[in-house]
Write a structure and sequence with these properties.
The protein has 13 helices and 22 strands. The chain is of the alpha+beta class and 578 residues long.
Length: 578
């Protein structure tokens, strides 16, 4: 096939799907070969392909906040080394929060140029959570950090593999700075191997169709993505839409932090302006600019076309305005290790601004926070460090025609999973005493907010440390169209002597044998007036043990009588005034 002729749409689609498949194979390879449960079990990573300019062209489903920054990391590598300065077999590592492709230091990007006929034609890139990268606390991320140097080693776009051979100097630096070098190096090598899988698949595609045809197809479907986005924008309501929310505090117990947005929708542009948002914070809730832009992308896609293929063409109408020296664009050396506590608001506040204008596409606020936890220590059985690192799932908001979802990870965590009970109890010295829905009172509406979860870890080691950061501890998820607000996220420490401590954050809190750490995630907000909820659905809520008869009567205007319970239609009509 000649690349000089117009390329037919069938070939474009076949090549696009082949490249997406290559990204997905990279994702599977990393998950199957990693050593850490946070990667192989929780799937705390993301994978993508870019072209030689750093434009996103294909991705696997993964963490949206990770995938959306990979193109920035590639562009940083191109800026630093130049395409001519890279050779086949090179692999670049970066985790510097103040460069492109950043989240926090635990999340390390590896990227590799893919060569064909002696020239770089694409890049394979992945970003994965490494359990430890040094710093002052086990697990590296620290809710009480006050500067980035406390949060672990920074890799400012360096070669860890040169022409196919590991750079021993870089590996030695890693070994000397991390608490579990064998596990971390295993994850690093799994990442590198997955990039090579993608490289082989791209090479096969170029051999089959011809490299010029492949590159022509990439340009064609990026243009398709741009046209699709513009068509969807034309169907949306136009104008300016504003909203604001408050983050609980500055990360160290200070005053709440304002998050402010103005969304402007035009036929050819979708502008998200965060001007007015609070300044760089003392604590580690600051969001690096790169991940903030990634969150703006997934908020945009959810509104414009959730099922579109995400690529740089589709995102081209998006423009983001972020003032410097704010919680969304902090100044070095501000800490960033719990960046999700602000970054998650970046998408949520966009949806809040548009909720009334596009009610058929947006649900009420969700529990929002990653609710990240690390339970760590020296395992009495082996004498080695252990790290259980995971997000926690919670309740999502109700929307027009549907109740909120129960026990899903937050918007920024995408395709991640919660750690299974079996893996937790097999690998780590604690017992999962309880894992259930968190049936908190709140989020009442015509369509109720989804339920969060309760998870109890009982320590069976002589000592352990818990680090946790649960945002929305003070400001619960917002309700929509007359629905009630959701409920907060909470961490409890229950000591063996009967003491109970409840907070939103703990940093390296010491636990002893028999102590229990309880993770409670909140409900999403509700949508619509509770007195419009279907009485039979209210009855089912009662039968399921979610609400008492008094709540059914006083909040929903539904009279439940008898044994077995049933709805008293006449009394319900009286209570509802009709």
């Amino acid at each position: 096939m000649s690349a000089t002729r117009p390329i037919d749409p069938f070939t474009v689609e076949v090549i696009k799907r082949a490249l997406i498949s290559a990204a997905e194979q990279m994702f599977v390879a990393l998950g199957r070969t990693a050593k850490s449960s946070v990667i192989y079990e929780v799937l705390d990573y993301g994978c993508a392909l870019t072209d030689a300019q750093g434009r996103m062209i294909a991705q696997a489903n993964g963490i949206p906040a990770f995938i959306g920054v990979l193109c920035d990391a590639v562009r940083d590598a191109i800026d630093r080394f130049g395409l001519d300065g890279l050779q086949e077999g090179d692999i670049i590592a970066t985790n510097d929060p103040y460069m492109g492709g950043a989240t926090h230091q635990n999340d390390v990007v590896l990227l590799m140029p893919i060569f064909f006929d002696g020239r770089p034609v694409m890049f394979a890139a992945s970003k994965a959570h490494w359990n430890d990268v040094g710093g002052k606390d086990p697990g590296s991320w620290s809710p009480d950090a006050t500067e980035i140097f406390q949060e672990g080693l920074q890799l400012p776009c360096v070669r860890i593999v040169r022409g196919g051979t590991e750079d021993r100097d870089i590996v030695d630096i890693l070994i000397r700075n991390i608490r579990m070098p064998e596990m971390t190096l295993g994850d690093m090598r799994a990442q590198a191997a997955s990039l090579r899988v993608a490289g082989r698949r791209v090479t096969q595609i170029c051999e089959k169709y011809g490299v010029e045809t492949v590159l022509q197809a990439v340009d064609a479907y990026l243009e398709q993505g741009r046209r699709e986005a513009l068509a969807e924008l034309r169907a949306l309501p136009k104008g300016e839409f504003t909203a604001e929310e408050f983050i609980d505090d500055d990360g160290l117990g200070g005053e709440p932090v304002l998050v402010k947005v103005k969304v402007t929708i035009r036929d050819d542009e979708f502008v998200i302006d965060y001007t007015g948002t609070g300044a760089t914070c003392r604590g580690p809730i600051n969001s690096p600019l790169s991940v903030l832009l990634s969150s703006a992308k997934f908020a945009y896609q959810a509104v414009v076309s959730p099922h579109a293929d995400p690529n740089d063409g589709f995102f081209s109408p998006l423009r983001v305005i972020v003032p410097e020296d704010t919680v969304f664009h902090p100044k070095r050396p501000a800490p960033v290790s719990t960046y999700w506590e602000s970054d998650s608001y970046a998408g949520d506040v966009v949806w809040k601004a548009l909720a009334d204008a596009i009610p058929e596409r947006i649900t009420a606020g969700h529990f929002l926070s990653v609710c990240g936890t690390t339970v760590s220590g020296i395992d009495d059985r082996t004498g080695d460090w252990f790290f259980s690192v995971e997000p926690n799932a919670g309740g999502w908001g109700g929307g027009r025609g549907k109740d909120g979802e129960n026990g899903l990870v937050c918007s920024g965590d995408g395709e991640t999973y919660i750690l299974s009970v079996e893996v937790a109890e097999t690998r780590y010295p604690f017992i999962v005493d309880r894992f259930s829905l968190h049936v908190a009172d709140g989020a009442h509406g015509e369509w109720i907010g989804g339920y969060g979860l309760i998870k109890d870890y009982r320590i069976v080691n002589s000592e352990a440390f818990v680090t946790a950061s649960f945002g929305r501890n003070r400001f619960p998820p917002w309700g929509l169209a007359g629905g009630g607000d959701g409920t907060p996220n909470i961490v409890e420490i229950r000591t063996a002597d009967g003491g109970v401590e409840r907070r939103g954050r703990f940093a390296k809190r010491v636990l002893r044998r028999g102590d229990v750490v309880r993770f409670l995630t909140g409900r999403g907000g509700a949508c619509g007036n509770p007195k419009r909820r279907d009485p039979e659905q209210v009855l089912l809520d009662h039968l399921d043990g979610f609400i008492e008869r008094e709540t059914a009567r006083d909040v929903y205007g539904v009279a439940i009588v008898g044994d077995p319970p049933r709805v008293d239609a006449a009394e319900t009509a009286r209570l509802r005034g009709g």
